[in-house]
TrEMBL record:
Protein's UniProt name: ABC transporter substrate-binding protein
KW Repeat (keyword) present: no
CDD domains documented for this protein: PBP1_ABC_RPA1789-like
Cross-referenced InterPro entries: BCAA_transport (IPR051010), Leu-bd (IPR028081), Leu_Ile_Val-bd (IPR000709), Peripla_BP_I (IPR028082)
Domain Leucine-binding protein: 26-359
Secretion signal span: 1-23
Organism name: Pelotalea chapellei
PANTHER family: BLR7848 PROTEIN, LEUCINE-SPECIFIC-BINDING PROTEIN
Length: 380
């Protein structure tokens, strides 16, 4: 009896969401992005991308006559503020789904809120713990950091580099990447000979790098998001260190090259989404046209090239609209549609979700790139 009442309640709530969306003619999508603060290089292009795509879809008539409304708040990269704003989106704004937050720490903080309130969240952050273990209402668009780590280690293996010096930032993204590299390195026969960290606001890492230089590893792996990695790149150049330097996908935008300087960044390698190098992809690549179209549209609207980070919001938008079209506009139906996503081509890769995988990307999501003369070059 109780089970029947529960089932009927879920159906009733779903019908209310659908009838409300139909009556109002709008479906509200919440956005939580670090538009200001140290992670603004993530949040600003995410916000702009979501706004651009919502406007474009509405100009074309929406989804079956229903318009979308993006309700976006700036978290400033602060986890406490992200929780407060997530609650506001759900309680006050009555959104059907939330896109974001921009960072791993914020996303982890918001998860209990969306799980309790049963509103789907599509994080734009990379930390594997966001979706592993799987949470019913939580998804994410960046490829898991263990995939990025594996791409780096595979490249190191090709170059016969066996000993690694780690230099990771002490935040959620850095801690997760450090954990994944160490686990994979042990499995693949690499040796971690140095394990150094730095703070998100540190402005000089010569002490850590001097230690690493003395140990003489085969390669250095830095894991973090700007500005730290750019500082480290400069410090490596200043100290005359010739050891190969690998960065994480957390710096896969031209902003990193700009901050570090083309000369210091010369030869740095990292795993990057295909958006950075779409112009040299084979024409048969399933993402090539979409990536070109996104970049051109973003340039037209905002006067600058599209970034991988803005692409995370593009992925979320495509996932949401696909779920609405295939399943319906209520939170429950959007959640179900997201989980059933299959072969959806987007900016970060080809998404194949399942009840066991709420990220849906594999190694094909990244290409190894090298910085050559201030620009990206594919590593052969």
């Amino acid at each position: 009896m109780k089970k029947n009442i529960l089932v009927m309640s879920v159906i009733f709530i779903s019908l209310l969401w659908i009838s409300s969306a139909m009556a109002a003619g709008t479906i509200k999508i919440g956005g939580l992005f670090a538009v200001t603060g140290p992670a603004s290089f993530l949040g600003e292009p995410e916000k702009k991308t979501l706004e651009m795509l919502v406007k474009d879809l509405n100009d074309k008539g929406g989804i079956s006559g229903m318009k979308l409304e993006a309700v976006i708040y700036d978290t400033g990269g602060d986890a406490t503020k992200a929780v407060q704003l997530a609650t506001k989106l759900i309680k006050n704004d009555k959104v059907a789904v939330i896109v974001g937050p921009s960072t791993t720490g914020e996303s982890m903080a918001v998860i209990p809120v969306v799980e309790k309130e049963q509103i789907p969240l599509i994080s734009c952050a990379a930390g594997i713990k966001i979706t592993d273990p799987v949470k019913k209402w939580v998804f994410k668009t960046p490829a898991n950091d263990h995939i990025a780590a594996e791409k780096i280690l595979n490249q190191m293996a090709k170059s016969k580099q066996k000993s690694i010096a780690l230099l990771t930032v002490t935040d959620g993204f850095g801690s997760s990447g450090r954990e994944q590299i160490k686990a994979l390195a042990a499995k693949k026969g690499f040796k971690i000979v140095a394990d150094e960290v730095y703070g998100p606001k540190d402005t000089d890492m010569t002490a850590q790098l001097t230690k690493i230089r003395g140990i003489r590893p085969d390669a250095i792996i830095c894991w973090g998001t700007n500005p730290g990695p750019a500082v480290i790149t400069k410090n490596v150049k200043q100290l005359g260190i010739k050891i190969p330097l690998y960065m994480s996908h957390g710096v896969a935008s031209k902003k990193y090259i700009e901050l570090a300087g083309a000369e210091a960044a010369q030869g740095v390698m990292l795993p990057a989404g295909k958006l950075a190098i779409y112009d040299v992809l084979p024409k048969a690549d399933p993402q090539a046209k979409l990536l070109k179209d996104y970049d051109q549209a973003y340039r037209k609207h905002f006067g600058v090239e599209a970034s991988t980070f803005g692409g995370y919001a593009y992925d979320a938008f495509l996932l949401v609209t696909n779920a609405i079209k295939t399943s319906g506009p209520s939170p429950e139906k959007i959640r179900n549609g997201l989980e059933q996503t299959h072969k959806l081509v987007s900016v970060s890769g080809v998404f194949n979700m399942s009840p066991q995988d709420h990220n849906g990307l594999d190694l094909s999501a990244f290409e190894m790139v090298k910085i050559v003369n201030g620009d990206w070059s594919m590593v052969k």
